[in-house]
Every structure is written in structure tokens, then in C-alpha cells.
Amino acid sequence: MDWGTELWDQFEVLERHTQWGLDLLDRYVKFVKERTEVEQAYAKQLRSLVKKYLPKRPAKDDPESKFSQQQSFVQLLQEVNDFAGQRELVAENLSVQVCLELAKYSQEMKQERKMHFQEGRRAQQQLESGFKQLENSKRKFERDCREAEKAAQTAERLDQDINATKADVEKAKQQAHLRSHMAEESKNEYAAQLQRFNRDQAHFYFSQMPQIFDKLQDMDERRATHLGAGYGLLSEAELQVVPIIAKCLEGMKVAAEAVDAKKDSQVLIELHKSGFARPGDVEFEDFSQPMNRVPSDSSLGTPSDGRPELRGSSRSRAKRWPFGKKNKTVVTEDFSHLPPEQQRKRLQQQLEERNRELQKEIDQREALKKMKDVYEKTPQMGDPASLEPRITETLNNIERLKLEVQKYEAWLAEAESRVLSNRGDTLGRHTRPPDPPASAPPDSSSSNNGSQDNKESSEEPPAEEGQDAPIYTEFDEDFEEEPASPIGHCVAIYHFEGSSEGTISMAEGEDLSLMEEDKGDGWTRVRRKQGGEGYVPTSYLRVTLN
């Protein structure tokens, strides 16, 4: 069924219907445009909300970032930020694929519709013009017939009148003949005009207008199909981001499950454990006896200079640790302003950083030496003398870092001795295992675990004997550390002979368990299947994480 056959006489209906279809298309475009504005505003508000609640300080400077609660909250905010990005993507896709495309298509449809209806109106005007010409010829034919009949009656009346002259009779007969001839010509013209109009009318109703209506039908059906596809784009834009949004929601769930209250409690201990020994009992001071009293070292209120307090000193402004307010302290390089335990940890961190920097400089020096050897053997590749400034600079950096390492090792040993002295007899009941080695395995055999990375050559002075033994060796037998589970597996690409302390040998192609990733120093801790655990060069491995 088509419009040209079934709706041949519904020109105005088709005009209204096609206009309604274009209006609907424009309404949908406007709806999608406002929808994109809603999505953009929603995404913008989400991003502003995330920015408002994200930590202002970097994670390395923010102690709160070590708590799983804070880490989960930050991860949650990041997932919300990613979710906002997906809403922006939905808005962008709708704007480009729906608003712009359908708006352009709507303009094309309006131009096509206008052209078809203009063609139909011209055809109507031509038919109406032909009908007017037909009516004019018909009226002329009717008028000429009446005039011819009247002239014939007048000639007949004069012919029968005995008083009429012969001239009058002849004149009347000529007039009647003339009128009859004119009526005959009008008749022929009317007949020709009628035949022409009927032909044009048949062409109008059976050919010309049906073709125009069929074109309008095709245009409207294409518009409806395009609009339906536009409806589908609305859901398709959402479906495209569903996998990413699902990952964001899954990330939020993982962040929620990552909150570990026990771990956070332990982190709080690690962050703020002072290492001080608990104060002893406050001794009774008898003010009824007028005599000098020997101050007690265990008394919180006893001045550090050993002078006895005067009467009424309980109302003095002397601050009693740990209940008094803390004075502002001056930050020192050896962190002596911190409690013993915190000082030890900060010194340990600084020592690890210096060892990493030292190892980096040593590697760079070795690389420069190899490059110099290549230049000496192959002069066309470069001038060996050009590397001397860099080698000298690297050597200076190595010497400087060695001195800093020795300095921090001495401070660390002193801090650890303070920790041990404060612990006293309670160390035997210590439940935490000793800290793992802080730095990567050395290049040469050494028993000094505090300065492994700086043992670069045999020319270096040996470490002090007091630093060779681990600090907590005497307490190791009180507890055992549970073996860690592998975090992945790896395959040895090359053979490696672990001759240094802390390293382990491996054969080419051997499968190993990954126990600890490379911390940036070029070494990875692995475990062999037949037993044994140690460090091997990261560049010798092909690693796969679980």
C-alpha cells in the first residue's frame, strides 16, 4: 500500500503528517541535547566532589596514606572520578552521534519535503488554471448559444411580419446566421478545452500527484527509520561504557574489601611507636622533713639538673612527659629530635635511599668504563677522553655517598642501641620479627648488612666490627617468621652464579618462585624449587606476576 494510491485526495493530511514527523525529530534532538548537558553537569559535579575530598598532600608526605582505610577511600575517589569520565564519554557520544547527525539530517529532510510540496502545489495550480479556462470557454459557449437562439427568433418574427421590409428581414437573417456561426465556434473551443482539461486532470490524479505522494512516503519512512536508529544510539551510548562502569564499581567493591582494621592498628604502631621505656613509680617526697632530698631518676617531676624542687612546685609550670605539651623541636640531620624507634626507622629509610643512589652511581661508573673500553678499541665510535669528566663526576658522587652511608650507619647503630637500652628486659617478649634487609645484595661478599650496596671494590675499608652482627641476633631464636607465599613465577634467561652473600645461584631456563619484586636496585628475590631463597639480577629473569 502506498500513499499515491490510497491517499490520493489527502494532500493537506500528508502535509500535516510530514511536518509532525520533522517536529518529532527536532524534539528528540533537543531532548538528547539537554540530556548531554545533564550528563556533563553530573560529571563535572562528580569531578569537583572527588577533587574536594582527595588528599591535598602527596602520599609520600602524608602519614595517613599508609592506613588501608585512607588508601581504600582514595581508590574509591579515583573510581568515582573514572565513573565521571565515562559519563563525559556518554555525553560526547550523544552530542556527536545523535545531536549533530540528526540535526543535519533534519535540515536535509526539511529541504526535501519543501521541494516535494512545492512541486505538488505547482501541479495543483496548473490544474486549477486549466479548469478556469474550461469554465470560461463553457460560459462563452453558453452565451453564444443564447445569442444565436435569440437572433434566430428575431429573424423568424420579422419574416412573418407583413409590415417588415425585405431589408430588415435580410439583416435579421444575416445576424442570426452570424450568431449561429459564433456559437458553433464556441462549441468547438469548449470541446477542445474540455478534452485538454480531462487529459491534464487524469495525469494529475493518476500520475503526477501519486508520484509526489510516493516520494513523500519514501522520505517520511526514511525519516522514521533514521529516528528509530537515533533512539537506539541513546542506549548504545550507555552500553558502550557499561564494561568500564562495571570495572569502576568492581574497583569500589575491592576498595571496600581492602579495609584491614588489624593492619591499620599495626600501621599506627609503626608510625608513632616512640621506643621510650615506661616511666617508673613516682617516689614519695616527705616535705615534713627540713632536709635536702636526693632526686629520683624515675620521677616524672624531678628536674633533669638534679636540683630538688621547692615547696609549691606542684603548681609550677614544669611540663611532665608525656602529659604536658610538647615543645617545638628543631629538625636535625640524624633525626635525634624524634623518639628512638622513629629515629631508627627514619635513619633506616635514609640509609636505603643512599644505598640505592650508591648502587646507581656504581652501575653508571661501570657502564662508562665499558663505553670507554669500546671507544679505545674502536676510536671511530667516539673519543675516550670525552668520558673522563663524567667518570670523574661519578667517582666523586660514589665517594660522597660512601661517606654519607657510613655516617648514617653510625647514626643507625647508635639509634638501635638506644632502642635496645630502652627495651631492657622486655625485648625477650617482643612479638614482631626483625626488619628484613633494606638494600639489595652486594656485588662482593660482605657480612655488613647495613652497607651492602657500598661494598663495590676490595680497596674500600672494612666496616666496623660492631656493625657486622645483626642488631637483633640474640632475639632471633625467640620467634620464627612464617615463610612468605610467592607473588608470581619467573624463568632464568641466563645462568647466574650467586657468590655474594644474600644471592642465590640459578641455571638458564630454571623455573623459580617470585618472592619479592625489584625495588629499583636491579635485584629480585626468588625461591628455588629444590629449596633456597635469595637475590638474583632482575635483568636475568622473565617475570610473570600472579
TrEMBL record:
Main location: membrane
Cellular component annotations (GO), alphabetically ordered: cell cortex; cytoskeleton; lysosome; plasma membrane
Domain SH3: 485-546
Compositionally skewed regions (Acidic residues) per UniProt: 474-483
Any one GO MF annotation of this record: lipid binding
Bias (Polar residues): 289-302
Residue ranges occupied by any REM-1 domain in the UniProt entry: 337-414
Xref: PROSITE patterns: F_BAR, REM_1, SH3
Localization (cell): Cell membrane; Cytoplasm, Cell cortex; Cytoplasm, Cytoskeleton; Lysosome
Coiled-coil zones: 124-175, 341-418
Matches recorded under CDD domains: F-BAR_CIP4-like, HR1_CIP4_FNBP1L, SH3_CIP4-like
Keywords noted in UniProt: Cell membrane, Coiled coil, Cytoplasm, Cytoskeleton, Endocytosis, Lipid-binding, Lysosome, Membrane, SH3 domain
F-BAR domain boundaries: 1-264
Ranges of biased composition (kind: Basic residues): 314-323
SUPFAM superfamilies registered for this protein in UniProt: BAR/IMD domain-like (SSF103657), SH3-domain (SSF50044)
Swiss-Prot/TrEMBL GO biological process terms: endocytosis; signal transduction
Family from the record: Belongs to the FNBP1 family.
Protein name, entry field: Thyroid hormone receptor interactor 10
Organism: Sus scrofa (Pig)
Native organism taxonomy: Eukaryota, Metazoa, Chordata, Craniata, Vertebrata
Gene it is expressed from: TRIP10
